[in-house]
Amino acid sequence: xxxxxxxxxxxxxxxxxxxxxxxxxxxxxxxxxxxxxxxxxxxxxxxxxxxxxxxxxxxxxxxxxxxxxxxxxxxxxxxxxxxxxxxxxxxxxxxxxxxxxxxxxxxxxxxxxxxxxxxxxxxxxxxxxxxxxxxxxxxxxxxxxxxxxxxxxxxxxxxxxxxxxxxxxxxxxxxxxxxxxxxxxxxxxxxxxxxxxxxxxxxxxxxxxxxxxxxxxxxxxxxxxxxxxxxxxxxxxxxxxxxxxxxxxxxxxxxxxxxxxxxxxxxxxxxxxxxxxxxxxxxxxxxxxxxxxxxxxxxxxxxxxxxxxxx
Amino acid sequence: xxxxxxxxxxxxxxxxxxxxxxxxxxxxxxxxxxxxxxxxxxxxxxxxxxxxxxxxxxxxxxxxxxxxxxxxxxxxxxxxxxxxxxxxxxxxxxxxxxxxxxxxxxxxxxxxxxxxxxxxxxxxxxxxxxxxxxxxxxxxxxxxxxxxxxxxxxxxxxxxxxxxxxxxxxxxxxxxxxxxxxxxxxxxxxxxxxxxxxxxxxxxxxxxxxxxxxxxxxxxxxxxxxxxxxxxxxxxxxxxxxxxxxxxxxxxxxxxxxxxxxxxxxxxxxxxxxxxxxxxxxxxxxxxxxxxxxxxxxxxxxxxxxxxxxxxxxxxxxxxxxxxxxxxxxxxxxxxxxxxxxxxxxxxxxxxxxxxxxxxxxxxxxxxxxxxxxxxxxxxxxxxxxxxxxxxxxxxxxxxxxxxxxxxxxxxxxxxxxxxxxxxxxxxxxxxxxxxxxxxxxxxxxxxxxxxxxxxxxxxxxxxxxxxxxxxxxxxxxxxxxxxxxxxxxxxxxxxxxxxxxxxxxxx
Amino acid sequence: xxxxxxxxxxxxxxxxxxxxxxxxxxxxxxxxxxxxxxxxxxxxxxxxxxxxxxxxxxxxxxxxxxxxxxxxxxxxxxxxxxxxxxxxxxxxxxxxxxxxxxxxxxxxxxxxxxxxxxxxxxxxxxxxxxxxxxxxxxxxxxxxxxxxxxxxxxxxxxxxxxxxxxxxxxxxxxxxxxxxxxxxxxxxxxxxxxxxxxxxxxxxxxxxxxxxxxxxxxxxxxxxxxxxxxxxxxxxxxxxxxxxxxxxxxxxxxxxxxxxxxxxxxxxxxxxxxxxxxxxxxxxxxxxx
Lengths: 311, 508, 289
Fold this sequence. Notes:
The complex is a heterotrimer of chains A (about 300), B (about 500) and C (about 290). Chain A has 2 domains: about 1-75, no CATH class; about 90-310, Orthogonal Bundle (MetI-like fold), CATH 1.10.3720.10. Chain A is built from 14 helices and no strands. Chain A has helices at about 1-30, 35-40, 45-55, 60-75, 85-120, 125-140, 145-160, 170-200, 205-210, 215-245, 245-250, 260-265, 270-300, 300-310. Chain A is flat. By secondary structure, chain B is an alpha+beta fold. Chain B has 2 domains: about 20-215 and about 480-505, D-Maltodextrin-Binding Protein, domain 2, CATH 3.40.190.10; about 275-480, Dipeptide-binding Protein, Domain 3 (Dipeptide-binding Protein, domain 3, Roll). Helices cover about 30% and strands about 25% of the residues of chain B. In chain B, the strands form 5 sheets. Chain B has a 7-stranded mixed sheet with strand order 8-9-10-1-11-19-12, sandwiched between helices. In chain B, strands 14-18-13-17-15-16 form a 6-stranded mixed sheet. Chain B is globular and about 70 Å long. With about 290 residues, chain C is mainly alpha-helical. In chain C, α7 (about 135-145) packs antiparallel against α8 (about 150-160). Chain C is elongated and about 75 Å long. Residues about 1-10 of chain C have low confidence and may be disordered. Classes of the chains: A mainly alpha (about 300), B alpha+beta (about 500), C mainly alpha (about 290). Chains in contact: A-B, A-C, B-C.
């Protein structure tokens, strides 16, 4: 089994390579470059050319890429074209913000969705089930950025309970985290419900009930444990997608996270920043998914056996 | 059980992150000596070149570097025209204006402890500003900068340059420490001579400046200025209302009524210096035809555009020179008159109209362009509004498909800059690709004219010539607003948005 | 052989029969049909230049009233009209994007699943690379590089989904290709292409189709998201996401400008999600009652 995971880790490397190549190539197609961003509109053609020569922006894509990779192997992600500051340091400064948002959103989502999923599974077919499922479907269908705007209107502008954006203390975290949580809540509730339903119908539950185990104990102890497995996977995947896809939430709430950093860097043609940030983000997400898979394998004895069978 | 462990781990992580990483709080320091220690300013842009002020490109950086750096001379805040000494105590104009000798102060210290000498000044100009700094375009008359002794330098110019002093007073013309840059590279520029020094810059969040005790000039009453970044206009204005910040830079027009109504706040308004205009690519048809440009200039409903984009808080202009620029004289220009526009267009080579595109990169420009699209349809001009990303736009001026643009221009220098920056053949921001020898000659002549009355008349003529030729269709000059706590005093608010907050304070 | 076929694959009419009995599916269908009809009717009632983008500065920023059911925007344009007209872009691009990603994903996934070996490795590694980059970043890069034409926007929105479709198709194909009827087909000498297309693909399609219908909502939100950050449909065209973006300036005091376009998105996505649920339930043999 460990060989399987080592293999997965090993495959991360060519994927990272692929990601970096892709970024370099596609950014080559962007109109304008860092010279245009940094030097402002007063710059003459010569000033622009000077800047480009000085930073090697005129070299062909492959040359620049090889230069970048050579530095990367030395552990140097370069400095931002725009701010001149170290790419890795800047990313690390912003990463905790995104992590905080992603984890808070996820926690909130889990807190509400798992109980809801369990309840609706147990009370399948009732009015409660129907209502909660409709609500969760609504939550799933709501565009995140719209929800964010609505929350700002309601709780920030009209009630004045929370600030409209930025980061600082817990007050600033509430609205963005709730926004992020709603969509995940809906998804997780539905997943929990269907997972629970599947498990509740399984033979071993009926066996436990037949043996006289109370309904409650059967649910919590047996069913949930087994239903949890696909839920964990979904949590992991959703967490991964929050890390990368938090752009919209960060934009609406001006949250200083990594998603906005990448977006701003793209519009400023800050190639080292974009490349470095995307590689780091991708690595983080891939690692996270790997961890989820490992947990999954440990938790589900069936999968464990399956992996042990793999060559 | 597993669920419990899971949740527990999440909470632990959450709490750790909350206290460790992502939450930045600017701590309120205890007050003393009658003035509030820390002044908090909300700004609307990332001041990315704050540590390299000679390359400063956005207004935020200019504004902030006035607190951390100094220039050789400054312009008086009262009349925006008189030159006052700063790092230079005095100067002599010799040789018909071709040589200017500056006598430097001897008591100026950099934030890194070094004393300023002529070496630093020469280095600042020759190695930083003239080599790629923002002011370079306006210093084309400078041939050399030479140190005569430790505290004297002189400029050698190719000809008398009346606007030189304005350019020398602009933020990107600041003096930096030669030693700092030589040892620390570009970022060594952050050590200025100003009343505050940069303590911390967290990208995307804030810049913290602390009072510099060895400053040669008047010491500010405030000990620390925190410039906090709020990209969202409404967030920034709300922060002012809740007291999170003391000064709110450029609140959104729709939020101004809230500031006015609030008894704890005050709304400051200043006459702006930014001109929004329509530029034409005069190198391609149909914009090489004067009548076409004049027709368009007569067919744009500026009042409507101002209503939509600025909620009415801008002044419509019909001259290419902004009224607040020194030596401005009003001339008659083109105002909204669709009948006259039709007539003008009929005299052109395109009486039936034509299709065209107009490029913009900002939301307010886009809104105005959309209003003009409606207006111009009346005379048969079918306009498509194309909104490009700022960087893309900057790279596209030489594209063959560039037709019209709607941009803004802020004159940060002397009167001559209103022309030398945008209308001469060598102008850095010549969006209409004007290549008119009359303009070049007149601008050059005015630049060296020492008789100020004659000079004003020359600018009047230039203004009239270019306005009549409609190289631009000038639209409006928005008012500049600042929201402040009513108790804030000592700040100077300027029409180009580069307010001087060094001496702002709040009494306890 | 005939028996095995019916065991795995429901015919279209069978699926439809199941679907009609499905409450959420029918509700979704009604919503979407309703939206389509509204857009169609709107196309004939409204004139683009006067009603949709025509400005009326004196009537700007008016709250909802009997004259303007959803109010007017900063240019004085009626918001309800713009929402009805704007639906076509969200629907067209959303559907086209899903079609595009499905076709590409299915082709790639089938090749990977059926042939295995080097082909599979290359395709799956490429899928890994594109899946590693967050979908919205991919979209942003594409649009910045290649412009904001409708064609490019469709591709930008669909790119992020292709790896997932490829994966699902491959898994499905791999499951199916070992089934007995494929071996039988080979035994009677049918060539590879025929096998892939007729037998493997048609049987592997059900998870793909279910996934596709569920992805339409995501594509609609995707184009709205791109327009929201300014990289999608440009003014004055009334795309829902773009309308939300310009409403941000006017949240305080004019919140109706942000309410209705978002509501339109939500209802449309809800409709497609309900349809997706319905399709999934009708095609899933396990849940057949």
